[in-house]
Fold:
Amino acid sequence: MKRRDLLRGTGLAAVAAGLAACGAREGGPAGTASDVRLSWKMVTSWPANLPGLGTGAALLGEMITRASGGRLRVRVYGAGELVPAFEVFDAVSRGTAEMGHTASYYWKGKAAAAPFFCAIPFGFNAQEMNGWLYEGGGLALWRELYAQFGLVPFPAGNTGVQMAGWFNRELRSLADLRGLKMRIPGLGGEVMAKVGATPVNLPGAEIFTALQSGAIDACEWVGPYNDLAFGLHRVAKFYYYPGWQEPGPTLECMVNKTAFEALPDDLKHIVETCCRAVNDAMLAEYTARNQQALDQLVREHNVQLRRLPDDVIAALRRASEETLEAMAAADPFVRRVYDSQRAFRAQAQAWHAISEEAYYAARR
Structure:
C-alpha cells in the first residue's frame, strides 16, 4: 500500500489538512510562529521500506510536514542510513537527530523500566496499552522516565498481537527449547533464557541471514505481514503462535526535549496529534493485512502453522512472572510502572470479560 493511499484511505489527510489550517499563514509579522521554518531528521530502527514499521515512520514524517504547511519538514532515515538500528536512542538524546521511531524495549540497558512502555510478556494487548498510556497514567510515567535522557516520548504505532516466531524444527515440549539459539529482544529474551534457550538480539535486517546460516535456530520478528516481506518462510517452516512476548507492542516516536520545547505551541500540537493518528493507523493496517499474509504463507508456501505446546506456554508464563517481579523488586521506578500496569490490567480484564471476550464467544 502506498503512503498516499494510506493517508487517503484512513482519513489522515483530513487530519493533516485540519492541523495545517490551525497554523499561521506565511507572511505574518516578523518573529511570529508563522516565520518558523525547521528541518528535522527522524532516525528509525526499521528498514526504510518495510511495510507497517518503515512505512509507518515515513507516514509520520510526511504527516508532520504536511500538517505544518512545510514549517516543520521531517526527513526520515531507515536503520543504518544515518545511525544503526540500535543507536536511535543515543542519536536523539544527543541531538544528532531531532526524532526517532523505534521500540522502547531496546533500551532496557539504559533504563530498566523502558520495555514496559512497549510490551512485556503476557502483558497488555494494543487496546489495553492505549488505554493505560492515554487514560491510565502510563504516558506520564514514560515521560518522567525519559526526561532524564533529554527525550519526550509519544506512542506512534502498534502491530497488535505478534507471532511467537519461526523455528527450524517442530516444538513438541519444553525440552525442545533448551539450547535453542533464538533471535528475541527485550524481556522476551530474558524469559526464554530462564527456560533454557539462548536469546540473541539482532536488528531486523540481519535476521534472515542469521537464520539461513544457522547462526540462530529460531527467531521472532513481528507477524505475517512483516515476516512474509522478510522472506522468513524461506529459511524456516514452523510458525508458532500466540505471541506471548509481544501481545500489544507500542512503537515510540522519541523527540529531543530541547528541540521539542523550542517549537511554537501549534507545532508541538501537530507533532503530538500526528503521532496519535499514526498510532491508530498502524494498528488498522496490521489488522487488515496480517491474515491475508498468513493465508499466503500457509497456502502458497506450505508454512506449518502451530500453537505452542501447553507446557511451553505454562513455563513461559511462570518465567515471565518471576522475571517481572524480580525487576520490580530491584528498581523502585520499575515497581511503580509494574504496579500501575497490574492495577489497570485488572480493571480492563474485568470489563473485557463481559464485553470483548463475551462478544467474541457470542459471535462464534
